[in-house]
Amino acid sequence: MKATALDPDTLTPAARRILDAGAELFYARGITAVGVDAVASASGVTKRTLYDRFGSKDVLVATYLLERDRRWRRLLLARLDEVTAPDERLLIPFHVLAEWSRGNPRGCAFINALAEIPDDVHPGFSVAAAEKQWLRELFTTLAREATFMRPENLGLQLMCLHEGALASSRLAGIGMVDAAIAAARTILAAADRR
Predict the structure, then answer these.
(1) Whole-prediction pTM value?
(2) Cys-Cys with 151: which of 119, 127, 143, 178 at CB 3.0–4.6 Å?
């Protein structure tokens, strides 16, 4: 049976402490740099409890990524619900990225995880890849709703801009997101509509 992430909403109190400690450590130090001893110690449980609750470090990592994905999606979808203008809705993921980046100074946890998890059978790999696929599909859907021709191409272009800003924001700061928003506006202005 293939290991998968646990549902973060159904965790026991001890599992929640483990996940919270693991999430903080994995994001701050990196997945491969943090062992189960450090997570167990930071969460105040034994390694046995960690393994009883998660089965493996891989499942803990996948659950950490799944919880971040859910928080990101909730925030992004909530902001989308506040905006009705189709072209502006295409820019919301960039605006939310600027907001999200202020509290996440080490860049994208999913990009970081994909760089650290070389094996696509790792349960965390599929969670991180699914987040990127979801965002690309969201851009495509928003482009279609805004009546742009070739929404798949436009969605991919906007995704590339978003990911580039996200990957570079640690070095260039929020100014990178502002530059991506300006570039996105240029792309939208030049794109054909149905």
Answers:
(1) 0.94
(2) 143
3-state SS of the chain is CCCCCCCHHHCCHHHHHHHHHHHHHHHHHCCCCCCHHHHHHHHCCCHHHHHHHHCCHHHHHHHHHHHHHHHHHHHHHHHHHCCCCHHHHHHHHHHHHHHHHHCCCCCCHHHHHHHHCCCCCCHHHHHHHHHHHHHHHHHHHHHHHCCECCHHHHHHHHHHHHHHHHHHHHHHCCHHHHHHHHHHHHHHHHCCEC
Same domain, 26 and 89: no
Are 83 and 104 part of one and the same domain?
yes
User: Which range of residues forms the domain containing residue 186?
Assistant: 57-190
Q: How far apart are alpha carbons 142 and 89 in whole angstroms?
A: 7
Same domain, 36 and 128: no
Within a domain: 1: no
Same domain (yes/no): 132, 172: yes
pLDDT tens, the chain, 194 aa long: 678 999 999 999 999 999 999 999 999 999 999 999 999 999 999 999 999 999 999 999 999 999 999 999 999 999 999 999 999 999 999 999 988 888 888 889 999 999 999 889 999 999 999 999 999 999 999 999 999 999 999 999 999 999 999 888 777 666 888 999 999 999 999 999 98
Pair 40, 95 in one domain: no
